[in-house]
């Protein structure tokens, strides 16, 4: 199997910069641009430093790239972008897109997106993707020339339409349920996590109030003064420690968010299957009804009610010539229909096969990533506990000297 | 006269039975409302024992470790007899000869009112007591009476605080179990502090409080300086409180005053902070309760990572319980102690004022002497008496102040050390939980890696 792009070149989103410019409606706007750097992977030779190529892209261009990939590879679970707007924030976090912390986390998320695409066996071979990384000017035009926009619109419509499929592949039905559940449970988790973070912040910060009071109180005490004063210092340390702790936890939340958004991508693949299946069923139905019509015309029996039949009864039978003509047309249509049905069937089966292969790949990736994320969460908790133990051990010593 | 017959009121739950050791499990649920509630005071101890006579005070300092084998633990109503056994006898075996417990709150309903009485059990070896064991029932009013009698008799001694009459903040119902339990603990502490005070312990009204039956106490209350004379005292006190006794106040008492003003400020702020911390911890606990189960819910849709998710859920639940313990520790130890010292700061300001008043009486008599040459002898005699009175008052206050400061230091040290220990236990428990989860996860990974290596 061909090596993924990620093995050949190093990709980083190394910087973020505020820019001002004019948008499509000639209004001034502020946005952030991200610097994408690429470098060929060196082959074990130190000292041989390959040159770094770089270009600037903004979030909307990433979006364009992703939409293109979604439309062009409907059987692939396309990696998601980091959130457009800050969601699941807790009170200290800013919901402002221009906030430096948000921009920083987005930078990391965009880099992650590129790496995911670059390491995907199918997506990494796409030219548009490669150009996105390497060709600053004219990229947008290149994307639009693929004509994917037309497909994009109908895809959007399809995703939102409701229709009943009679015989979907059960695996996809189950998968769709799973993706709904995943979405729901991760959202819930992220919401509660944000509230827990908020409360934890409160607990730590309130302890900071001790510092000043202890200090002022120690001024009037002789024996207790030293103990109080130094204990107060440790309380300040304790209160300050929560900032780093929660910042780290935001990265964990981002990892979960990625899979929240992945659930949508998963769902899209399932929907595509449903769409194709529905299409197939409709085509088959149509073919069957045409065959029936043909038969009826040929034998003269009316088995099913049809308006045409009624009107011809009311207004008189057709001439044999007219009937012959109709039969001929129908026969042509039937032949066409059968060919179409065959190819749709084939398409459908191919889709199922390749989609399911990617889904398996995705499942493995998901299990691996989530397990690691949970482990990293445990590591964070352990670190937080150790810090707590240190501070309170020191505080206890000070208190015992009061 | 209140009917103290056992008219069955709403049945109150039995208090947790006594047993040694720290009472982390004493309250099964976190208190519904923290703000303002007078929480149970833990042992005060750290007692200095005084010689019998007030004038010649010798101070023996007791080993602080004795105090820890404490009979003061009101969260476990240990019976007086078991308290005797717990007590370590060192240099002076007859040091503690009065053991008091307050327990068994009971509701009484009359036509006019509903009130609670508490059982007060006293065990003693003192000869002044006719019996060695007493059991009486007292209501809050009776405690108030005792306090005021003690203040009357010893205006410049530091009378321990009583739990407040009402709770202003918070929506704790007057007769909620929590409120009653908190009050019971505080009353227990109140009596024991008096018993422990070198002077107050021998007060006659105190003895009557501990021993008299209900009707006896009632009739005794009606005796003594009548309402009018008490009013007279108050009037005099008010009169001399107007700039009385400040002019010639000894330096030491001005220092005390300054100290108390600052201390009072700081302790009130600490009270607020401590309550705020409790509130934040409780809110954190509430959110955590929801956090763990989501992971369990998620595990139901997963296969490969189901175990990891369940593991995280279990860790979070354990940490949640640990946080509950931490909260309970706060409400059982730090909060009540700080609250007591808020009350103490008011008491001490009052004591200092009363000393000033006594001084003021002397000062005004001295002024009178300067003006009226006629009744010189009489006034001189009165001045002599007042000088004695002032000296007594000053000495009493000075000694009691030193004692109070030492107790305060001990109480604060142990309360805050306890807070630190609670937090340490909390973090240690959480650490162990997460570490064991991590071990289980990484062990799995190693197993997976090994199995991949095999052909």
From TrEMBL, chain A:
Query: Which InterPro entries does this one have?
Result: AH/BAR_dom_sf, PX_dom, PX_dom_sf, PX_SNX4, SNX4, SNX4_BAR
- Keyword presence, Transport: yes
GO CC terms in record: early endosome membrane; plasma membrane; SNARE complex
**Where do the TM regions start and end?**
none
One annotated GO molecular function is: phosphatidylinositol-3-phosphate binding
Family statement: Belongs to the sorting nexin family.
- Listed GO biological process terms: positive regulation of autophagosome assembly; protein transport
Q: Which UniProt keywords apply?
A: Protein transport, Transport
Q: Which residues form the PX domain?
A: 12-140
Protein name per the record: SNX4 protein
The protein's organism comes out as: Casuarius casuarius
